[in-house]
Design goal:
By secondary structure, this protein is of the alpha/beta class. The strands form four sheets. Strands 6-8-7-10 form a four-stranded antiparallel beta sheet, covered by helices on one side. It has a three-stranded mixed beta sheet with strand order 5-9-11, with no helix packed on it. It has a two-stranded parallel sheet with strand order 1-3. It starts with a helix and ends with a strand.
């Protein structure tokens, strides 16, 4: 065989080695020719071995799309009717400190259009060659990521009473503000609800000898306290009903017969001389604007 014939056969063999994979890859691309894919066939083979289709999709910025379909569902519409009631829970001491959690910045999602990290097995190739190889590996068209559902809804309705709103308060939290008409201070209408009441005095050398001590006596130390007033020159004066009759709602250690029907507290805008004002008690039904 002549030397020129040997070269022709070798060239034909070399062509057959690269033609088959390049033609197969070109069947999946609309942009690159077989000749262009042949130049990056080594990178293509590396990508195929490492199953790098997801990487290529990101590298080529192939945008995902969603598919849409419609389903029929049944929904229940709840109608709230009536006036919401509030249940107050009184606790001693100061409220717990709220610790704000630091935002985890490193956990933020990578921006959609950011270039992904190049795998180590092709990091020595130029970006343009990697892009060409990815274009030969996959068809640069969007693929479905998820679904968007359009719902045709059949609605039924039901009427319910508003839920009871529970609020936790710390009436004797220190420092207690002074000479204010708002909570924990409040002026009761107990003379209408309980015409027969009695008072107890706790002098400066007793547990009621401070404003905080007077507050704690009314809310947590005694039962059925209607109100308490702290005087800087004589201590704490507590008022309680002689014949306590409660509703049975909101029973606690401080209110063993529950809330007192009709007992309300309004703002104490005219406190007694040399006092900090009336401290509202724990057994009321309504605490207006406090």
């Amino acid at each position: 065989m002549h030397f020129s014939q040997v070269l022709a056969v070798a060239a034909l063999a070399a062509t057959s080695i690269y033609a088959s994979p390049v033609q197969e890859l070109d069947a999946r691309t609309d942009n690159l020719t077989p000749e262009q894919c042949a130049k990056v066939v080594k990178i293509v083979e590396l990508l195929k071995v490492h199953k790098a289709t997801p990487f290529c999709s990101s590298f080529l910025s192939i945008k995902p799309v969603t598919s849409t379909f419609t389903v029929t569902a049944t929904a229940t519409s709840t109608i709230t009717s009536g006036t919401a009631s509030t249940s107050l829970i009184f606790k001693p001491g100061n409220p717990p400190t709220n610790v704000r959690r630091e935002a985890e910045v490193n956990a933020a999602l990578e921006p959609r259009d950011a270039t992904p990290t190049v795998p180590p097995y092709i990091k020595n190739y130029e970006s343009s060659s990697i892009s060409s190889a990815c274009s030969c590996l996959i068809t640069p068209t969007a693929s479905p990521l998820g679904t968007v559902t359009t719902t045709q809804t059949v609605t039924t309705s039901q009427t319910v009473a508003p839920p009871v709103v529970t609020s936790t308060l710390y009436p004797c939290a220190t420092p207690i503000p002074i000479r204010i008409p708002t909570f924990p201070f409040g002026d009761p209408n107990d003379d209408v609800i309980f015409p027969d009441t009695y008072t107890e005095r706790f002098y400066l050398d007793t547990v009621g000898g401070t404003l905080e001590g007077c507050c704690n006596l009314c809310y947590f130390g005694l039962q059925n306290c209607l109100s308490a007033t702290y005087y800087s020159y004589q201590g704490c004066v507590v008022r309680r009903p002689t014949n306590p009759i409660g509703t049975g709602v909101g029973v606690s250690d401080a209110c063993p017969v529950g809330q007192f029907a009709g007992l309300t507290y309004g703002r104490d805008t005219a406190p007694d001389f040399r006092s900090q004002g009336n401290l509202a008690g724990p057994c009321g039904q309504v605490y207006n604007n406090l």
